[in-house]
Amino acid sequence: MRISLRPSLLAAGSYAAFGLLALPAQEPKPAPTPPPTAEPPAPPLAEGGDAQDPEPPKPGKPPMLVVEAGTVHPVAGPAITNGVVVIDGERIVAVGKKGEVEVAADAIVRSFPTGHVYPGLVDAATDAFTDAALRTEAGVDAGTALADVLQRRHDRDDELVAAGITTAYVTVRSPGVVRPQGAIVRPTAGGFEPWSGHEHGAVQLRMTNGPGPTHALQRQQMQQQVDALFDGLEDYAKALTDHEEALKKYAKEFEDYLAWHKKKKDEKAGDKPADKKDDTKAATPPAADAPPSPPEGRRRVRPGGGGGGGGEPPKAPGAGEVDDEAFAAALGLVLEAIAQDPPKQDPGKQDPKPGPQTPPGGGAPGGEKPAENKDEAPKRPTWPKAPPRDPQKDTLQRVLDGALPLRVEVHRADEVRAALQMQRRRKIPVLVLEQAYGAGECADQLGERGTSTVLTDLLPADLPESYDGFDPAALAAKLQAAGVPFAIATGSARRAPLLPMMAAAAVGRGLDRDAALRAITLTPAEILGVATDVGSLQKGKLADVLVCDRPLFASDSHVLLVLQKGRTAFETK
Fold first, then answer.
1. Helix or strand holding residue 340 (H, E)
2. pLDDT for res 538
3. Greatest alpha-carbon span in the chain
4. Strands annotated E in 189-322
5. Cβ pair 69, 79 in contact under 8 A
6. Which of the residue ranges 129-133, 161-165, 300-304, 529-533 would you say has the lowest mean pLDDT?
7. Domains and CATH numbers, the chain
8. By the 8 A CB rule, do 471 and 519 touch?
């Protein structure tokens, strides 16, 4: 390995070495005696009289945090007057009435006697942390993920956390039929933090032409186009499964192939005279439980479909894996066997002599079954060719497997019905409808299937004139009556401060207050699959806490404090 040195250090080392060689040897001068100083105090003595080394101080555990308020709204249960939320580290450890919950003596107390405490809000659809190019991009496939291109700061300031939003699902309303996969993030004061394990939140499709004038046949064509994305997935999955089985079969056959040649080599080595030295290099066959390796230049393939990583530590080969060194050794063994016993050919005879024909189905002439030649070398197996991979099909297959939810934008009632028909025909486990303004006509069907819906544009004048017949604010109450899980979302980062107002608009059109609060906290957390950590004030959940000076749905309510994982993310000065 080449090591570079700076010229100054190299020169200094050379001069020092030259000086040591040139100067005569001299006796070292005695070191000056240091002035007497006060001796440090002796360490304490142990029981046996030996001195103990002082232990370094251990970092202390941060004290508990207690948030007291006039009213605590857990969402998962009734409101608590004079309630407290006890936080230890990043998690909530207790929620209850003041005086009835045990609190540590050294706990830090934040008191809001007239305040209202809520869980951090959950926005089920926002375009925060995306730029204009992402919001207009139509040339992507379902394998594209927004999480890879989100921006913490760009042409606008997305201060979601200042509005009390501590969890958000980021998506874009691009014009394409297929949109990038949405991502779940944790908004912060400086932007956001990716939520590890939730970078691929859902697959996004569009089954509507929007508010412009369209004919029913035109919409039907678009619905068929979306449905056709799932064509061929069954054959694609079968091809991948067949390839995995072929890899296992190849590994077994190649192991038998090498074992046969090794046996023949050992037999020939045993027939040689004892005094004759065999200089042939013995090739080490692969382990009995390890399949051989493909020729050099081929990518290692595991049954799961993934290739070997360049930076991963070496692993023992398993089923479907191969080992380069074992293959090189085996190849040498095979070539050596061929060189020792080459096939005999007669170049002068091009055409074989006519002989008795083998009857159909095999066997010797006359119906006799030929004797098996156990000494005949087995045919060398062929490396199975992998089918071409398609990122979009891989992703859509995860939808059918239930690993990813499918979110489809629909507006009119016929589009809602088309999405439900596609779910039934394609057997899609998890379907979420977005902007389903006409879902009121299909509310009973949605309730029977438990299909979730994300509502946006609940404020007056949010919809264009062509959609005057829709009333999203009143739709929330209809969905509640039919038992449809629904969330209320902003749809846009610029509307983050208006999320409570959208829920209040639904309350004004007949929605229950508790259901409205749930629609911006616990229900969207359930739709996103993160309800075990966020969405309500409960023991064991993340300490995401919102404190307001008045009830959340009051028009003059203000955010006083926002905690995220027990730490202050926003506070009014």
1. helix 324-340
2. 98
3. 116
4. 191-194, 202-206
5. no
6. 300-304
7. 121-232+392-537 (3.20.20.140), 233-372 (no CATH)
8. no
